[in-house]
Structure formats: C-alpha cells, structure tokens
Amino acid sequence: MRLSTFLALFRPALPLILGLSLGCSLSLLMVSWTQGDTDDPCGDELAKGGLFLGRRDAQRGGRDGAGEEDFQPRIVPYHKDPNKPHKKVLRTRYIHTELGIRERLLAGVLTSRATLSTLAVAVNRTVAHHFHRTFFFTGLRSPKVPHGMTVIAHGDDRPVWLMYETVRHLHQHYGSEYDWFLLAQDDTYMQAGRLSELVGHLSAGQDLYMGRAEEFIGGEEKARYCHGGYGYLLSRSLLARLQPHLDTCRNDILSVRPDEWLGRCIIDYLGLSCMEVHQV
Ligand SMILES: *[C@@H]1O[C@H](CO)[C@@H](O)[C@H](O)[C@H]1NC(C)=O
C-alpha cells in the first residue's frame, strides 16, 4: 500500500531519472574512451579509424623529447627588485588595438561640396551599411554636414590634392585598424554586398591594388591604373608601403585626375599595376 503510493508519487519523475542515469553512464563511457591509456584497445581502434586524430597527434607531439618524462611542477618565485623602477604597462585604449585585431573594410567616398547633400547622402543610405565604416572626403568645408555622416574636409578642392590627403589620412588614422580600404566616388555604382563578401575571402597582408584597370591615355606601357569611377580596393600593406612616397608623388606627378595620379604613384614607386582579378 505504502509502496504503491510512493511509486505513484515517483512516476512523473521516472523519465527524468531514467534519462539522467542513462546520460551519466553514457558520459562515463565516453570518458573511458577519450581519456583512457594509449593501450586501451578500444581507443586505439577508434584512433586508427581516424576518429581521434587530433588526440593521437597531440600524444605523438608529447612523446618525442622532453614530453617522455613525467612533468615535474616547479615553483617559480616572484621577486620584486626594489632597486628597479616599477615599469608601468602601457595599455592601448581599445583591446582590439592591443591584440592586433582589425576590421575588414573601411570605405572612403570622395565627394564634393556640391554633391555632399545629394549623391553622398544617397551612398550613405544605400550602401554604407555594408561597410564597417564609411567616411566622406571633401575639399572645402561644407556649411552643412548631413546628419549621421562622417565628413572629412581637407580645405583644398583640387582633386589630386583631395586624393593625396585622403590616402594620407586613411593611412595615418586607420592604417592599423582595417585590412582593406575601398576608395570610391559619390557617383560610383557599387555592389557593396558582393564587395564586402569578396573582401571577406581575401587574405590580409598582401599588397593589392584592385579595381577596374584602365590604360593611361597615350601610354604605351602595360601598367594600368584603377579607374576611380568604379571604385577600387587598397590593402593595408600597400597603403603602408605607399605612405613614404606620397609627398614625392604629389610634387612630381602631374595629373589632373586623382585616380590616374594614384595609379601612377603606385606603379612608379611600388611597381604594382591595377588588378582586375585576383587568385585568392
Ligand atoms: C547615414 O547613415 C546613418 C547610419 O545608417 C544614419 O543614421 C544617418 O541618418 C544617415 N544620414 C543621412 C543624411 O541619411
């Protein structure tokens, strides 16, 4: 009588208890497979089958050399030398700077005072959300900066100067924060989604100057520049290598078109031509 009441009380919890005990025994089984000795035939069989490849590799690594002996723990005492001045650890402002983690893509859009409130705003509304950050570069200061847009004014309206200042600015302020820089005009038609996807597949750390390659007018040479109207990508390392030459380029290269000027500078000083396709 009492037993049956007890059981009736117990019944709802029965599946739970069963499940728990089954889970426990299964996990115990797993422990003996994955943590057992090497001579454990079961573990070895599985390892041969390739199931625990990682573990075998780890063991092999440990077997050669010092790993053979039993590891003896040792206490390393911490002495603070009172004669030495206390070294202050300099922390960067953001943890990702300290760890060297960079974002993928920053977009720089070259705009002008006349089109800032029209084309640039359209860029901001249609494609800017595909990039981690978008900056708008313009020559002269604009009386009215559209809401929610970062506009960087350089104070000189000549297109080549704007390009020079833009590239310099990108390198100086964001050269260590981003892997890729997209330079485009405010009237550039962009498939921004595809672009940011492409950038996600490119490996960082290579010099890359990629976009729509165009020949120089009247030029016999094979080297091409990336046409600004289509936008182009510059890699972080290219930007870093280009930086020391920018002033020379600004003074020596005569061009009225900013994209040609930059192309000339990259071709002459880094020996790189605009690429349309790239093998990842
Ligand atoms: C530009 O984009 C930002 C972010 O999407 C938005 O907050 C802002 O209102 C936009 N500005 C204009 C002028 O459309």
UniProtKB/TrEMBL annotation:
Its main location: membrane. One of its GO terms (molecular function) is glucuronosyl-N-acetylgalactosaminyl-proteoglycan 4-beta-N-acetylgalactosaminyltransferase activity. GO terms for cellular component: membrane. Keywords: Glycosyltransferase, Membrane, Signal, Signal-anchor, Transferase, Transmembrane, Transmembrane helix. It is found in: Membrane. Residues 1-36 form the signal peptide. It is a single-pass type II membrane protein. The keyword Signal applies. It comes from the Eukaryota. The keyword Glycoprotein does not apply. Residues 130-277 form the Fringe-like glycosyltransferase domain. This is Chondroitin polymerizing factor 2.
